[in-house]
Amino acid sequence: MGYPHKPHPQETVVLSQYFGDPEARTYQGWVKRGGYEALAQALTMEPAAVTEVVKESGLRGRGGAGFPTGLKWSFMPKEKKKVHYLCVNADESEPGTFKDREIMRWTPHALLEATAIAAHAIQAEVAYIYIRGEFTEPWAIMEKALAEANAARVLGKVTIHLHRGAGAYICGEETALMNSIEGKRGNPRIRPPFPAAAGLFGLPTTINNVETLAAVPHILKRGAAWYKALCLSNPKSTGTKLFSVCGHVQRPGNYEVTMGFPLKDLLYDMCGGVPAGRTLKACIPGGSSVPILNREETERTLLDYEGCVAAGTMLGSGGMIVFDDSADMVYQIMRLARFYAHESCAQCTQCREGTAWTTKILERILAGQGKTQDLDLLLDLSENMTGKTICVLSDSCAAPVVSGIKKFKNEFEDYIAGRRKPVMVA
Amino acid sequence: MADELTNLTIDGVSVSVPNGTLVIEAAKQAGVLVPHYCYHPGLPVAGVCRMCLVEIEKTPKLQIACATPVAEGMVVKTQSASAKDARQGVLELLLINHPLDCPICDQAGECELQDFVFQEGRSGTRYAEYAKRFNPVEDFGPDVLYVPNRCILCTRCVRFMDDVAQEPVLNVSERGDRAYIGIHPEARLDHPWAGNVVDLCPVGSLLSKDFLHKARAWELDKTASICTGCSQGCNVTLDTRDEVVVRVRPRPNLDVNRYFICDHGRANYRWMNRGDRIEAPLVRRGGDGELHATDWDEAFAHVLGILRGASGKAVALVSPGASTEALSLARRLFSGFEWTGAFQVVMGEEAPLAGVPNLALRAERAPNAKGAEGLGYTRDYAAALAAAETAAVVLVLDDPDCAVKTAGALIYAGTILGPDAACRAADVVLPIANVAEEDGTFVNRDGREQRYFQAKPAPGMARPAAWVLGELAAALGAHEVA
C-alpha cells in the first residue's frame, strides 16, 4: 500500500509517524518536526548515561534476535583504548520484511540522528550504515540526508559512512556484514571473539538494526518510563514494533503496534483479513526464518518476543507472511528452502549441502516422485541442520520445513500418495 | 606453574594442558582424535566443516572442538550419542556430492574422508537424487591439479595461500552447494611453497601432478629424513615404493619447518633413484693402468697403502651434502697430514614462506655446509683445488663434478662417475650410498643437528661413506682431530 495513508486507529504511531510525509525527508523539515533535539540532548550526557536510559527502557533488538539493546551497548569496553565502530544493519533481506526500507525512505534523518546518538553512547568515532544493495531509493535518500546533516554539522564527532551491499542475504548476519564492509567475502565469523571485543577491522564494534536505533531518539526525548509503559502483555517486551504484512491480506503494508498486540487483530482488523471468500491457513510472523503458525496458533498469538515463543515461533524481524486456504504449503516451503539454498555462504557443511538437499527433496515431492520416508528424512536432515553451524541460516531453512511438516503433513502426504496433481518446478 | 594449567576431562581421561589450549589439541593429549577436516594446527582456525562437534557438559549446544578453548573442570564427550549423530550427519552431507571414486583417487588410503566415513559414517546413503554436482578438473599450477568433485570445501588451501604463503590467489567461489575453490583468473598456483596445499588437502581434491597415479598410499614405506635441497634442514618423509623414492612430504617440526616444505625440496628426489651408480670399488692396477672393479678388501688395502706411504700435504674436496659422520671421519683419516678441507655450495634464489618466521628455501642449496664448517672444512674451494695440485694425497668425497688435478694420489668416494669426470683419474674409487640409503646427520644453518634414516638399500656394493671412511680410519688407528 502506498503512502500517504492514514494510520489505523489501533496503531501506536511512533516510528512511522511521518511515513508518507515528503517534507520529513529534508533536514529543515525534520528539524521542524523536533528532529535532532534528542541528539543535542544526548551529546550533553555522559555516554554511560545514554546507555543507562536505553537499558531502562527495555528496548530490544528489532532485527530478529531480540537482544536487549542497552545491554549490548554496555559490552563495549568502558575504558577507551582503541577506535570503536558502530554498524547499522540496514541490509534488510529477510523475505517478508520491509520495515527498515520505509524508515530510510521516509525518515532518513531519524536514522542518522539515532546513529549519532548510539555512536556517542558506545564512544564510536565511525559508524557504517550497511544498506541492502537492492534498496536503490532508500540509498539515494540516505545519501542526500547524510550530505544535508554533514553540511549542517549536527552529527557531533561521529563520521557516518553509507556502505552499499551487493545483494547477499547472508550479509545481514552481523559478522558477515562486518566482513563485507572490510571488503571480504560475506562469510559469518565464528564467535568468540564477539563484536564488542573484536569486530569490524578487529576493533570493538556494536551492530544494531535500523528499527532498533530509530526508537532511541524517542526514548531519550520522552523518557525510558514512557517507552517501558508501551506494553500490552509481557513486561520484557516494551515499545512499538513495525510489522510488514504481506501475502494473502486485503491491505498489506507496514503497521506499528505496541508490543503484546494480538496478531489476530492485526490481521483481521488492520489488514482487513484474507480476501473475501477465503479463510486463513497459516502465518509466518517474523520473517521467513521462523516456524510457521497454523490458523489456530495465529489467532491466539500475542505479538511480542515471549508471546511468539509461547506460540512456538519467534517475533523475528516482524516480516509477516500470510497464507489463505488457496496456498500450497509444500510449494511455499520449497520456495523458502530454495531461497536459503541459494543464499547459503557455503562455509558450514550442514548448511551448504543440507539446504540444497532439502530443496531437492521438496522439489521431488512436488513433482509427485516423493517417497513415504521422505518426510522422516526431511525432519532428520533439519535436525542435523539446527544448532550446529556458525550462523543461523541453516536453522532458518530447517524451521519452516519442520513446522510445515508438523502442521500441514496432509498436504505433503497428498503429493506423495498421488492425490494431488504434481507441480513441476523450474 | 600450576595456575598456568587447565584441568579437564575428555572421554573420561583427565588431562592438564596450558591455558588457552583448544579442546581438539587437548584431546590429542588424552589420546583422543576428534575427527576434523578444516582444522589444521598450522593454519588459522576456520570452524567451517563442523565435523569436530563435541558435547561439553553444561553447554546446551554441541561445540566445535577446534575453536573452543579449554576451561577448568570442563567435561568433554566426543563419543556421546549427540556428538556421534552430528558427525554422522556431516559425513552423510559431505558424501552426497562426492564421486566416491576412491579406486582411482591418489588420496585413497590416506584420505580423511575415507577414514572417518569408514569409522563412523552411515552404511548407506539416503540421497535418492540421481545427479551429483559436477565440475571439470582444473589445472591450478605447475604441480597442482584441482578435482572439484572431491572437494569438501574445508578451505585449508585457501587459508594456506592467504595467511601462510601470503599470496592470496585461491578463494571460495560461488555460494551454497555450487561453491568450489576458485583461482584468481590471472594467477597460477606457482608460489614456491604452493605444493603444500596438496598435503593440506584432507581429501583427493588437490593433487600433485608429479605423484599423479604413481602409487597407492598403502604400498608406500615411509622414512624420516632431512631435505637436502638447502641449508634450512626441513624435516621430510621419504615415501618409497619397491625401493624407489616416489614422493617427499613434510614431516612436522615446529622449530624448523612447521608443517611445510617448499616445492624445490618436494621435487628434489629423483636423483636418489638414478641408475648409473658406481656399484663396486674400483682400483687402478694391472698393465693397462685402467680402473678395475674389485672387492672392498682390495680397495681398502689400496687406500691404506696410499695413506701409509704418503706424508705432507693432504687435501679433501667434499660435498656439503655428505653426512656429518662421513665428514668427520674423512678428516680423521688425515690426522697425520698437513690437511686442507673445502667444499663448494651451489647458490640459488632465496624463497621465504612469509607466514612462518625463519623458514625459507635458502640461497645456499646444501644441507650440511654448517656441519662441514664446524669440522674445519672451508669455503675456499679454489684455494683447496690449487693446493690439491701439489698435495701428496687428495680425497674427493661425493663431489662428482670436482675438477680436481693432482700430482699425488687421488681417492674418490662417490655415488657416480661420469664419462668425463676428473675423478676418472683416481687411483681408487669407493662406491658410497646416497642420503636415502644411509643413516646420518646434517647440521642446518641454525646449528641444529638432525638425523635422517635409510629409506632404501644402496645399489651393489656401495656402502655409507661413514662406514667406508670409518673402516679406513680404524685400520689406520687414526685418532679424532681435536
List keywords for this structure.
heterodimer; A: 426 residues; alpha/beta; Rossmann fold; Ubiquitin-like (UB roll); de novo design (two linked rop proteins); 5-stranded mixed β-sheet; globular; B: 482 residues; alpha+beta; Alpha-Beta Plaits; 3 domains; 7-stranded mixed β-sheet; 11 helices; 24 strands; 21% helix
Write the topology of this structure.
The complex is a heterodimer of chains A (426) and B (482).
Chain A: H1 27-32, H2 37-44, H3 47-57, H4 69-74, E1 85-90, H5 99-106, H6 108-121, E2 126-131, H7 136-152, E3 159-164, H8 174-181, E4 205-209, H9 210-222, H10 224-229, E5 240-247, E6 253-258, E7 261-262, H11 263-270, E8 280-284, E9 293-294, H12 295-300, E10 302-303, H13 305-310, E11 319-324, H14 329-343, H15 349-366, H16 374-384, H17 393-407, H18 409-417
Parallel strand pairs in A: 1-2, 1-4, 2-3, 5-11
Antiparallel strand pairs in A: 5-6, 7-10, 8-9, 8-11
Chain B: E1 5-10, E2 13-18, H1 23-29, E3 53-56, E4 63-64, E5 75-77, H2 81-96, H3 112-120, E6 138-141, E7 144-146, H4 156-164, E8 170-173, E9 180-183, H5 196-200, E10 206-208, E11 221-226, E12 235-241, E13 244-250, H6 263-267, E14 282-285, E15 290-293, H7 296-309, E16 313-318, H8 324-332, E17 338-343, E18 351-352, E19 360-361, H9 369-374, H10 381-389, E20 393-397, E21 409-414, E22 428-431, E23 440-443, E24 449-452, H11 465-476
Parallel strand pairs in B: 1-5, 16-17, 16-20, 20-21, 21-22
Antiparallel strand pairs in B: 1-2, 3-4, 3-5, 6-7, 7-10, 8-9, 11-12, 12-13, 14-15, 14-22, 18-19, 23-24
